[in-house]
């Protein structure tokens, strides 16, 4: 089934739909699009968009979207929830951050609000933003560390106050807010349209053993349900952290390719000081090419997902709490 009129589907109370939002064709001429699941509640209410796999190697969110969309019953729902389990379908198929067919614009979350006659990734973003996002009251995008990092849970927000308030609604185990200032992201573009949006970050490809993966997927689902209670889509008591830390930090890039040998300081949630030795990059003969030092005091929020370093890649995330908000 192909979907071409999202507003019309939203108006059909108590019904469920799924299908493909058409974007273009593959190199063999077969259809290429975005998978969409729509669940309309029996009662009126807000519209919430859940999206995952903007980066094709960040698949924890895809599982969360599929699971929660299957669990939701229209009779228990006020409003409409729309799930996009995989936004970047070709990147998902190849297990890479970006579309392997893309020749110009690899990172989809730097291309918003897209371009109708642009590269393939720009066209995906344009269709997604104009036909889905702009019709929403709230947007939650699920991300992770993919092939670069393993990340502990944090909430990316824009400087839009409505984004920050939505971030604070995520739940008691999500106590870290990280303000995103990258241009041309989903968060910036939603802010420009007055749509509250957040990105939830959790996980990475180096720790997807079944128990850990299930726990991370459940953490995403609990967060989504909590947001839905906050915006009155679900009955039940909304849970709050009460206080949040706003992060200031950086991703550390390596200057050399090689193998990453981490020190005991390079561990999730480890407190570090500026100048602490976190890792070394060595060549295939064991010769040290580069020491990776912490650029600031803070906490390790992301560790390498792979021991292989590529020059210029982000390999470690260090951040500190700059201020708290209530």
CATH topology of the largest domain: Aminopeptidase
C-alpha Rg (nearest Å) = 20 Å
Structural class: alpha/beta
Distance between the termini: 45 Å
- The top-level CATH class of the largest domain is Alpha Beta
**Assigned CATH architecture of the largest domain:** 3-Layer(aba) Sandwich
Which sequence of SSEs, written as H and E, runs from N to C? EHEEEHEHHEEHEHEHEEEEEEEE
Describe the structure.
It contains seven helices and 17 strands. It is α/β, with parallel strands linked by helices and 326 residues long. It folds into two domains: 2-242, Aminopeptidase, CATH 3.40.630.10; 252-319, OB fold (Dihydrolipoamide Acetyltransferase, E2P), CATH 2.40.50.100. A hairpin with a 5-residue loop joins strand 2 and strand 3 (31-40). The longest helix is centred in the C-terminal third of the chain and has 21 residues, at 210-230. It starts with a strand and ends with a strand. The mean pLDDT is 96.
Keywords, please?
five-stranded mixed β-barrel, four-stranded antiparallel β-sheet, globular, 7 helices, alpha/beta, Aminopeptidase, 326 residues, OB fold (Dihydrolipoamide Acetyltransferase, E2P)
């Amino acid at each position: 089934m192909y979907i071409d009129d999202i507003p019309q589907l939203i108006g059909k109370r108590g019904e469920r739909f799924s299908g493909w939002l058409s974007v273009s064709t593959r190199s063999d001429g077969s259809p290429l699009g975005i998978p969409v699941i729509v669940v309309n509640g029996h009662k009126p209410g807000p519209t919430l968009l859940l999206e995952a796999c903007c980066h094709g190697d960040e698949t924890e969110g895809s599982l969360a979207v599929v699971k929660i969309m299957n669990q939701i019953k229209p009779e228990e729902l006020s409003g409409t929830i729309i799930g996009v389990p995989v936004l970047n379908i070709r990147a998902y198929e190849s297990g890479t951050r970006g579309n392997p067919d893309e020749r110009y614009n690899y990172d989809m979350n730097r291309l918003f609000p897209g371009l109708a006659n642009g590269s393939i990734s720009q066209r995906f973003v344009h269709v997604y933003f104009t036909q889905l996002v702009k019709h929403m009251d709230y947007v939650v995008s699920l991300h992770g560390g993919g092939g670069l990092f393993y990340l502990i849970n944090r909430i990316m927000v824009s400087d839009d106050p409505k984004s920050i308030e939505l971030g604070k609604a995520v739940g008691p185990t999500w106590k870290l807010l990280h303000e995103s200032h990258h241009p041309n992201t989903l968060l910036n573009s939603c802010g420009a349209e007055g749509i509250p949006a957040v990105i939830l970050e959790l996980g990475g490809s180096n720790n997807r053993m079944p128990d850990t993966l299930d726990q991370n997927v459940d953490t995403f689902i609990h967060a989504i349900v909590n947001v839905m209670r906050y915006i009155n889509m679900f009955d039940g008591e909304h849970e709050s952290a009460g206080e949040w830390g706003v992060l200031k930090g950086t991703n550390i890039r390596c200057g050399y390719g090689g193998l990453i040998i981490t020190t005991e300081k390079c561990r999730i949630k480890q407190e570090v000081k500026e100048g602490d030795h976190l890792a070394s990059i060595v060549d295939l003969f064991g010769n040290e090419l580069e020491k990776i030092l912490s650029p600031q005091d803070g906490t390790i929020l992301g560790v390498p997902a792979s021991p292989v370093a590529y020059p210029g890649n982000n390999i470690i995330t260090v951040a500190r709490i700059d201020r708290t908000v209530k």
